[in-house]
Amino acid sequence: MIEELIIANFKSFSYPPQKIRFRKGLNRISGRNTAGKTTVLEALIFGLYGEVPGVNKRDLVSLHGGKLLVKLRFRSPITNQLVLVMRQGELDKDGNYRTTKLLMEVEGEEGVMTRDEEVREKIKSLLGIGRNRFFNVVYAKQKEFSSILKPDKNKMDIILGLNVAHEIKEELKEVRKRLESEIGLDKGRYESLKALYQEKKERLNEKTRELKELNHEINVIKEEASQLEKLMEKLKERLNLLEKLMERLSQLKEKRSNYEKLRSEEENFSKEVERITEEVGEKPEELKKKLEEKREKLLNIEKELTGRIKEINNKMTGVMSNRNRYVHFLKEYLELKQKKMVRCPKCGQEINYERLEREIEEYRARKNALDLEARELEADRAEKEKLLEGIREEINDLSRKATNLALRVGQIGMLKQKIAELKEESEKIYGEICSSSKEVIQQAKFLLKKDFNSLDDVFEAVQRKHGEIKVKLNEKVLPSLFSKNSLLKEKESRRKKLEREIEAASKQLDELRRELTEIMEYKEKIKVVGKLMQRYTDYEIQLRENLLKQLGYLTYQYFLRLTDQQNYSSCMVNRENYQLMVQPRGKNSFIPAWRCGGGHESLFAIAELLALLKSLRIPYLLILDEPTDGVDEENIPTLLDYIAKTAKEIDQIILVTHHGYGEEEKTNQIRIKNVNGVSVVSGE
Questions:
Q1: Are 608 and 551 a contacting pair, CB within 8 Å?
Q2: How far apart are CA 343 and CA 323, in angstroms?
Q3: I want to staple 599 with a disulfide (CB 3.0 to 4.6 A). Which of 58, 205, 455, 635 is the partner?
């Protein structure tokens, strides 16, 4: 499931990034104490959830400085999609951790997730388990390996999902209390509500008949108003046609004025072209070519100087990087010398002070040489930057001259284009004037049924007809329509009032009907709630019995697979405290598994972990951090061999240990070393 982990500047891991590849089966992470084995697990957890329980985020950033990087690649056991999660962060000026980059890519899905909440939710669906189950079942922390044998009851309820039925039962109990308090009604309440319901129903029928008569009156008035509206629309349509004709007449007058204006503008633009041509000369292209050639030469010089300055800057960066490294080394070595320490606090090796003195002198000499080289580079850069500034000023001056020339040449082109456009537009307008005049006279003849000799005769006749129709519309049709609409408004107002009264009466009837029905239903509801409570009580008991019975059975079956010793005949989980109980062979009583001794105690812990993973349907990952911590030396080989065999039951196991037992079962060996205070990864 976990395929690859890349770490940089994470606790004891520095830079460059360290890459760790995981495989299916057993992955053993080994190394000496303080080498950084547990740090690998913390980086894996940080990649998934953005935090490590019990550890402040600022303590995850390496003391060597730089940005923290964790990149995790895994394949979902649920969807088989390949997933990449990358987290970067650093310490701010106050020493607090802040995330600088977060992204999550899922194979086959578009877009990248960048918000912590959506990343965690997506990981939950991809892994098929929540954060609580991961940290309590999949991941066994150092010194907590055998705690599964004596678990916290409340935490175990949540892990197994046994708290859900109890919570539902408590909610049902509250529902029954509310129903019992709400049903406290007088015995005569039902009869009084029934009589009131009949009275309200008769009043509703009366108002319904009145509304029916009013609707008939409204329909008659609407029909009369509709006839007046049709006449009004017909008159408005005639007015609209006449107004459009008048508008066309006005447009023709305006076009005549525009035609004369365009001819005047065309003449003025022609004079402006002659004036600018005299200023620029007859051969502006030759002058433009000379300016461009000179500018191109200066640009080549500028490019060469810029490249030289860039080379100096790159060299300066390398020099200063080396100088800062030697300054860092000098500072560390001088502190060791001043404190007169016997052993290095980072790697634990014994300090050779003669060698330390030689390295201090060597680093001081190298640092001084780099300082001198940096000063020479700075002087060379200043000289070339001053030369570059002069070249750029000359380039800008040539650009301004070329731009000004181009503007004047472009201005001539635009003016000539404008002259052509004005000529084309004026000719177009003249044609429109000629054709539109004929169309307008023909349209006026059709509307007014009369012949016309000129546009002025048309305009006078159209205005006179427009006034006659407007008087008829405003003095006869509109007043009659207004009277009908006022009466209609009054009738509709009365109808709305009746409808509101009918609606209110209907709601009152519905409310009375609901109250009458509720009285009869409350007792039935209380009976149903009682039956549901009993069912959930039985379900809670049965669920607990089945789960714990299955867990005890599976634990014993896994125990038999992991060892050939037949010291115990069965296992069971205590219903009260969830402790694993085992039955020694030949005995009738059970004893707690944590009393079986270091070897068998750890073996039972592994078996119960496997049983939990099987029961919760997550048999694909198990992470163990130093499970031998606190186990007798004599039992460590046996325990590690048992864990190695467990790889046959789980798709992937990640085991952290500094012991070498059980290697014959491994599929992947990952070694962590501490080199000069920095964790380094090496694989088999």
A1: yes
A2: 27
A3: 635
Place of tokens 């300066």: 316
The pTM is what?
A: 0.49
* Cα angle 32-33-38, degrees, rounded to a multiple of 5: 100
**475-521 pLDDT, tens per residue?**
888 888 888 888 888 888 888 888 888 888 888 888 877 877 776 77
Two tokens at 184? 């406290």
Q: How far apart are CA 174 and CA 181, in angstroms?
A: 11
Answer whether 445's CB lies under 8 Å from 451's CB.
Answer: yes
Could you give the CA distance from residue 152 to residue 578 in angstroms, rounded to a whole number? 8
Rounded to a whole number of angstroms, the CA Rg of the chain reads 47
In which residue are the tokens 């009365």 written? 494
- Whether residue 646 contacts residue 610, with contact meaning beta carbons closer than 8 Å, is answered with yes
In terms of pLDDT, which residue wins out, 129 or 142? 129
Residue-level pLDDT at 122: 92
Handedness of CA 634, 638, 639, 640 (dihedral sign): positive
Q: Is the peptide bond before 584 cis (omega within 30 degrees of 0)?
A: no
Whole-number Å distance between alpha carbons of 542 and 521: 31
> Taken in order 275, 277, 281, 285, is the CA torsion positive or negative?
positive
Q: How far apart are CA 249 and CA 461, in angstroms?
A: 12
Hey, what are 3's tokens? Answer: 């395929």
Q: Residue 91 in contact with residue 9, Cβ under 8 Å?
A: no
Separation CA 586–CA 565 (nearest Å): 14
β 652-656/668-675 pair status:
unpaired
- Name the strands in the sheet holding 139-140, side by side, starting at the edge strand that comes first in the sequence: 139-140, 622-625, 652-656, 25-30, 668-675, 678-683
Tokens 């057993």 locate to: 26
Q: 219: which residues sit within 8 A by CB, 6+ positions away? A: none
CA-nearest of 95, 94, 10 to 44 is 10
> Measured in whole angstroms, how far is the alpha carbon of residue 170 from the centre of its chain?
37
In terms of DSSP bridges, do strands 668-675 and 25-30 run parallel, antiparallel, or are they unpaired?
parallel
Angle at CA 402, nearest 5°, toward 400 and 403? 65
Sequence-ordered list of residues with C-beta below 8 angstroms from that of 569, at least 6 positions apart, any chain: 583, 584, 585, 586
Q: How far is CA 520 from the centre of its chain?
A: 51
Q: Using DSSP, state whether 188 is helix, strand or coil.
A: coil
Residue from 51, 101, 110, 106 nearest 74 by CA: 106
Average pLDDT over residues 29-44: 89
Contacts of 659 (CB under 8 A, 6+ apart): 30, 628, 636, 637, 640
For residue range 159-194, list pLDDT tens digits in order.
776 666 666 766 767 777 776 666 554 445 657 777
Gap between the Cα atoms of 134 and 53, Å rounded:
12
H helices of 54-188, in order, are 116-127, 131-133, 153-160, 163-182
